[in-house]
Amino acid sequence: MSKFICDSNCELDFRKFDELKIDYLIRMPYTVNGAESCYDLGRAGGDAASEDFFEKMRRGASVKTQALNQANYVEYFEPFLKAGEDVLYVTFTHKMSATFLSMDAAIAELKEKYPDRTITTADSKGISMAAGIVVYYAAKLHNSGASDAEVVKFVEEFRERIACYFTVDDLVYLKRGGRLSGFKALMGTMLNLKPIITITDGALDGAEKVKGRKKAIATLAEKLESEKVDLDYPVTVLTTELGEDYDLLNAGIKERFPSAQLWPCRVGPVIGCHCGPGTLGVVFVKS
User: Which of 48, 92, 253, 258 has the most CB atoms around it within 10 Å of its CB?
Assistant: First the structure.
């Protein structure tokens, strides 16, 4: 049986990672004022570390993310291959990072060195819990004894049912990340417009704009109705910080769907570098 791997851009809570006994986590790097760290799904520091990161962003800290290089991936994969084991890696969306070019190069290098071993990858086409919910159910299937081919087939089908919508508090972070032009960011801020952003085929896509924060929060809750949520699966509420807005979104979902199983997800620093403090979102499975 292969070793099941995921990366920390899936933002699956470390307790669920442990529950599933996932074999390995690729920790994605980021820097704060030049000091590099790697995200570990909140295992070290928990909520306090997350809140500290976003408070530093609010105070103007310089934050950046880095792509892993070919040598990094060789270092992650080779110990398994050397031990005579295959690898199955369910990734975050390939369209949002150049890191997967390095991954492909590493796999090609390792294939020459270990021709009898395989590294199989499956693109969740999501990020944060839009990837995490795919990882969670793919890992459960893997644990049940499914083959790598069966897990890949499941990922490719299940990812089409994942809905992800989020809003940001300040458009400046999307502008810095190249997701929004400077003019649009300025006009949106002046008009108090809040974007509702989704993921389409693995890439960020603007779904709509609404006036004001409370309307944006209500719109996120409404998406579960318009997209026909499947309540056999959990609904994940994404947030960078706990507080009134987070509580309001939870209440809006529960009002519409009292039986919904809500999973909280604290947005981590790697993804937080791009969306900024005050980000709120929902991830759910469509029926």
Answer: 92
Same domain? For 38 and 171 the reply is no
Residues for the chain: how many in total? 287
Would you place residue 127 in the very low, low, confident or very high pLDDT band (cuts 50, 70, 90)?
very high
Rounded to a whole number, what is the distance in angstroms from the first to the last CA of the chain? Answer: 31
DSSP 286: B
Secondary structure of residue 282 in the 3-state scheme: strand
The closest of 15, 279, 4, 2 to 127, measured between CA atoms, is: 279
- The Cα 273–Cα 216 span in angstroms is 21
Query: Do strands 24-26 and 3-7 pair parallel, antiparallel, or not at all (unpaired)?
Result: parallel
By mean pLDDT, which of 7-11, 118-122, 172-176, 282-286 is the weakest?
Answer: 172-176
- Is the pTM higher than 0.90? The answer reads yes
Same domain? 211 vs 266: yes
Side chain identity at residue 73, one-letter code: Y
